[in-house]
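Note to self: keep these together.
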Amino acid sequence: MDTSAMERLKSRCKEIRILYIEDDEVTRKYTHSILSEFFDSIDVASDGQHAYDLFIDAELDIPALGLSCEPQSRRYNLVITDIKMPKFDGIALIAKIRKICKETAIIVTSAHNDVEYLIETIRLGVDGYILKPIEFDQLFDSLASTVETILLKEERRAYTSSLKQTIVLQQSALEEQLHTDALTKLPNKNTLDSILSHIQPVEVPSLFLINIDRFKNYNKLYGIEVGNQILKEFAHHLKEVATSMCYSVFRVSSNEFAMLHLDTELNPEKIYEDINQTLELLNGIAIKVEGLNERILVHISMGVTFDQENLFNKAFTALDFAKQSGKSFVVYTSNLDETESLANDFYWQDVIADTLDKDNVVPFFQPICNKEGEIIKYEALIRIKTKDKLEQEQYVSPYYFLDIARRTRQYDSLSHKMIEKVLELMVTHPTVTFSINISFRDMLNKEIRDLLRSKMEAFRAQNQAINLVFEVVESEKTTDLNTVKNFLKYIQYEEAPIAIDDFGTGYSNFSHVMQLNPAYIKIDGSLIKEIDMSEKTRLLVQGIVSFAKALHVKTIAEYVHSQLIFDQLVEMGVDEFQGYYIGEPWLELPCRL
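Structure:
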């Protein structure tokens, strides 16, 4: 026997604990003496019942529920057992052990070369066999093979545990960055949006939106660094004031902050007291900035609302009116923006109706490329063809009409027509992969589901590949993830690749998102646009990429607008790219990729 091989096996066996069962005393002592050469921890039993009791005691010493196969100091890594034994035999012992832990390695020793015994041990997942009388070489070879298997399992388990911990830590860090403002350390607009979306009917909110007046002038006069110091100092004072009045405080944009209080009843007098106290303590506050001799006087404007619906938009409308009118604060009332809003709604509803009547829903196509710059698919983007005031033909972005359409049934007709036109193009461009936006509302729309189902059936009947990616907006407020599964099953396209759109903003919840089992994560353009200017944003994007890679999900960067951004994203490990640097959305689709 090779001495170096023996020494190597001894070094590998130090942390392994053995349970050895043999009823024959002579064989037991002989084998135990050999095993002792390699293993430091050996327990011996002479019958099946005694061995089972020892195994149970070791397992019950493990914390938590007791019957666990997680690596612990006292559990057995290896069981070596005879077949013929008193009390109950080796087969019965192995069966009982396997009910408790399927991963414990087991070696069988037996003088019986019985086929039935062999088949039963194979069924029970035995790791090795040693025929009696036991020879040293045979025992050594079986131990060496089994020990390697045990150690490989432990290494794999340790790696998996480490990977899980890394992902949890990265997710925690990302969650903090997504919900905390990097400069002021205040909760950001994502956090505010989340709270506002969960306000209960019995809760009465008071929302103050606060703007530092003429803040751009500070940046122009003193520079960005001093401007940031002003923001940090103001945030510190604002937090003190808000806390003293039992308000939560948020930074929602560059020079805008918010205060929020939730009560159980509406008390206008108390709200107006809070408004006046906030203005008294903060409007005209003198802020000391390091490096400047003089203090900087900061003035503010406020927009206030205590409605329950669309709080932020209403507070923003009130703030905008306050700034335009030169008032220190304005409380939202419906007449501030209702007339203009209604006129805008009616205008676009008429335009959409005309578009649908004339079949003027038009898909534009924006290319998506890989890191080599090769176009691999196109995202289909909705446009409507209409005429401007000078009767010139134009294609209008959904920015102007989609939110209005969502409030009516016009959205369903627009979405149906858009999907229908993309599906028609799939027939004439069978080698092109298309990516289309689909909302949960679309998935629940029977006409859209029936359209997709009939097209999927037609493609399969013609043996045509289905090259279609569904982009689901991650920020949509829904918890019914079965909607996606039921939708894909109904249209008979369960293997459809899912892309999570606008990832990194809105309602980011990684565990919630990952239940969709996406093929792609599309990193939101608001993050991509800033990676060359903001180290925090770059780290956030890198974290998202690392998170996706750990889960074997591809990443697509949106709003790639320059060679510099493209090169940085390639270096980060982003898989695919979309934006004006790659190509603008175009009406015409190339004949082939």
